[in-house]
Specification:
There is one protein chain. The chain is of the alpha+beta class. It has one domain. It is 22% helix and 31% strand. The strands form four sheets. Strands 1, 2, 6, 7, 8, 11, 12, 13, 14 and 15 form a ten-stranded mixed beta sheet that branches. Strands 5-4-16 form a three-stranded antiparallel beta sheet, with no helix packed on it. Helix 2 packs antiparallel against helix 3. It is globular, with a radius of gyration of 20 Å. The model has no long low-confidence stretch (mean pLDDT 94).
Length: 310
């Protein structure tokens, strides 16, 4: 792709390592019978009130400090509105205007050269439920819903589009996983869905500063899937551009069997989700003393230790 420059950004969704959900006391244990770890709060029954889990804030704060973020002293939660069967309330409680961490960076090493990948923000939110699609003759045309995962605490880490190759993206993912594991923020078990990725990629003429139309790729449950899907979609985009076409801004699904990305829907913007303040949660203030304690207790990170011992 010598005529084009690759631009890649990643969103990481890490389930936080807590015993209970973010806004209720239901267990987060993996593998329980379907819909056995639910209550009126995480199922979105009328009249219920969420209560924020303090351990969620502690782990999110630990990550924000480790990622060199500007920690938000004032935090607020918003409702992210969209309809999908695995979202029982028809909105997801998330952070938008006042996240726990803004900016920040993570250092990676590629080809013996150090590089900083910038972060847009680090924010807390709740996970959705899970759709289970039929795969046998009895209910092949049906889907079932398991809400055990609804309300499990998530940390979403959004990178800047700073990666210029799939290899850089792979290195970044490995570094982020090692930090989250080392700090005890998440168990990062991808086979259980506690670490998930969404990739965004585009191409632009070499030397240009203008970003091309961004394609977001979902359904990525392994490092290999992220790398293969990025390579496949970048090839697709290059073929379109060389043929004189245009790349549409859209969301794609990765089809592992076919080795291709497939259109899912046109890409949403923030306005499509109609964010507005969560009326049932008061703003959260994080004291300077709390931030100072977390910073003082933070151990030496793996990358810093490698540099010190090399």
């Amino acid at each position: 792709m010598t005529d084009f420059e690759t631009v890649i950004g990643l969103e990481i969704h890490a389930e936080l390592d807590t015993e209970s959900k973010v806004f209720c006391s239901c267990s987060t244990k993996f593998g329980a019978p379907p819909n056995s770890q639910t209550c009126p709060v995480c199922l979105g029954f009328p009249g219920v009130l969420p209560v924020l889990n303090e351990k969620v804030v502690e782990l999110a704060l630990r990550a924000a400090v480790a990622f060199n973020c500007e920690v938000g002293r004032q935090n607020a939660f918003e409702r992210k509105n969209y309809f999908y069967p695995d979202l029982p309330k028809a909105y997801q409680i998330s952070q938008k205007a006042l996240p726990i961490g803004r900016g920040g960076w993570v250092e990676i090493e590629v080809g013996g050269q150090a590089k900083r990948v910038g972060l847009v923000d680090v924010h807390m939110e709740e996970d959705t439920g899970k759709s289970v699609h039929g795969d046998d003759a009895g209910w092949a045309d049906k889907s079932l819903l398991d809400y055990n995962r609804a309300g499990v605490p998530l940390l979403e880490i959004v990178s800047e589009p700073d990666m210029r190759s799939v290899e850089e993206a792979e290195t970044y993912m490995n570094e982020m996983r090692s930090i989250l594991l080392f700090l005890g923020v998440s168990d990062c078990k991808m086979e259980q869905g506690s670490l998930r990725f969404e990739a965004s990629c585009s191409l632009r003429p070499a030397g240009s500063e203008v970003l091309g139309n961004r394609v977001e790729i979902k359904n990525l449950n392994s490092f290999r899937a992220v790398a293969n899907s990025l390579r496949a979609d970048l090839r697709r985009q290059e073929a379109l551009l060389r043929a004189g076409g245009a790349v549409a801004q859209e969301t794609m699904l990765w089809n592992e069997e076919k080795g291709v990305t497939e259109p899912m829907r046109s890409k949403e913007t923030s306005s499509d989700y109609r964010y507005f303040p969560e009326p049932d949660l008061v703003p959260l203030e994080i004291s300077g003393e709390w931030i100072a304690r977390v910073r003082a207790e933070l151990p030496e990170l793996p990358s810093a230790r490698r540099r010190r011992l090399s």
